[in-house]
Amino acid sequence: MSEWKTVIAGLGSYLPEKVYTNADMERMVETNDEWITQRTGIKERHIAREDEFTSDLATVAANRALEDAGMSAEEIDLIIVATVSPDMHSPSVAALVGNNIGATKTAAFDINVACSGFVTAMSVADQFIRTGFYRNILIIGADTLSKITDYNDRATCILFGDGAGAAVLTASKGEGGVLATLNGADCSGADKIYCDGLRDPKWCGEEKAQTHKRRSLWMNGSEVMKFAVRIMSNATKKVLEKAGLTTADIDHLIPHQANMRIIEGARKRLEVAPERLFVNLDQVGNMSGASIPVAMCQAYQQGRFTKGDVIAIVGFGAGLTWAAAAIEWSK
Ligand code: COA
C-alpha cells in the first residue's frame, strides 16, 4: 500500500478585466439590481473579451499556480481541466494549456461535470497521486460561461461570469493534504441544466427550442435550487465522515458560488458559523468550474488559511452532479 498523500503546493487564479454590473444587466434584460441582489446575492461578474477563451484564462491561472508552487511546467505529469465551455470540441482545453505553459512531459484531459468540476478533478488527481502513479498534477477549473449564455434570458444571464482557478497538487509523505473526496450523480436530472450542442434543443422540451438562443445554457432554476441545498449539505457531511471528522471541525467552508440563498441554506443545515464560510459570489457570479478554485485562491491570498486548518469544498451542477473534498491545509 502506497503511503503517498496529495497536498496543495500552489494556487493561482485569473478573472477577465471586463465587468458587467447589475446596472449593465438592467440595460440588457427586464430586471433590476434589487431583484438580482435579493434573489441571488450577485452584484458583478467578470466577462471575457470576444477573443479570449477558456484556455486563455486557464493558462494565466496555471502559470500563477506553478509560480506559487515554485514548480516548472516540465515537472507536471498530468493536467486536468474541468470546463463546460471549452474553446473547441477537440482538442481538450488541457492540451491547449499544456502547450501554452510548455508542459512537455505531461498527460492531459478535460472533464465535463459542470460546477462540480474542480472538486471532481481533485478527486481524480488524488487517486493517481495516492497510488504513486503520478507525482505532480495541475488541476484547473475554467469557464467562459458568457460565451454560452443567452443575454435575452433574464433567468440565467444575471447569474453567470467567467474565470479560472488552478491548483498544483503534489505527492507528499507529510501531514495533511486531501483527507477524503466523494463524487456523485443523479443522472435522471440531466435535463434540469443543459447547454445544447450537436443534439436538437427539443431534447428537453419545446420551451428552450422556441425561446432560447442555440448553444446556450438553460435550466429549471427552482428545481436546481432545491436539489442544490440538499446535496451540498449531504455531500459535505459525508465527505467529513469519510475523513473521520464532523461539520464542527470545518475551519473554512468553500461551497460552489451559485446563489447566496443556496449557500446560506446549506450553511445553516450544516450548522457552520457564518465567519467560517467564504463567499465571493457578489463580485464574480457563478463561474461553474472556476467558482471553487477562484474562491479558494482568494481566501488563501487573503491569508485566511493556517497550517492544520480543515477546508471543506463542495460543488453541484449539471448532470446533475456533485462532489466534495475535505482538505487539511499544509502549505
Ligand atoms: N429579474 C426580474 N425578475 C426575474 C428575473 C430577473 N433577472 N428572473 C426571473 N424573474 C421573475 C420570473 O419570471 C418570475 O416571475 P413570475 O412570478 O411573474 O413568473 C419571478 O421572477 C420568480 O421566478 P423564480 O424562477 O421562481 O425565481 P427564483 O426565486 O427561483 O430565482 C433563480 C431564480 C434563477 C435566481 C434561482 O432559481 C436560482 O438561482 N436557482 C439555482 C440556479 C443555479 O444555481 N444554477 C446553476 C447550477 S450550477
Q: What small molecules are bound in this structure?
A: coenzyme A
Widest β-sheet, arrangement of strands:
1-7-6-4-5
- Helix/strand/pairing category: alpha/beta
Q: How much strand? A: 25-35%
Number of helical stretches of at least 4 residues: 11
Largest sheet: 5 strands, mixed
End-to-end gap: 25 Å
Low-confidence stretches: none
Order of helices and strands: EEHHEHEHEHEHEEEHEHEHHHEE
What do the pLDDT scores average to? 96
Gyration radius from CA atoms, angstroms: 19 Å
Query: What fraction, in percent, of the residue positions are helical?
Result: 25-40%
Number of strands: 13
Shape descriptor: globular
Description:
By secondary structure, the chain is an alpha/beta fold. The protein has eleven helices and 13 strands. It has helices at 22-28, 33-40, 54-69, 93-101, 117-130, 154-157, 206-211, 221-242, 260-270, 281-284, 291-301, and strands spanning 5-14, 18-21, 44-47, 78-82, 107-111, 136-144, 162-172, 177-185, 193-195, 217-219, 252-255, 310-317, 321-328. A five-stranded mixed sheet has the order 1-7-6-4-5, sandwiched between helices. Strand 4, helix 4 and strand 5 form a beta-alpha-beta unit. Helix 3 packs across helix 4. The longest helix is centred in the C-terminal third of the chain and has 22 residues, at 221-242. The chain is globular and about 55 Å long. The mean pLDDT is 96. Bound molecules: coenzyme A. Coenzyme A binds next to helix 2, helix 6 and helix 8.
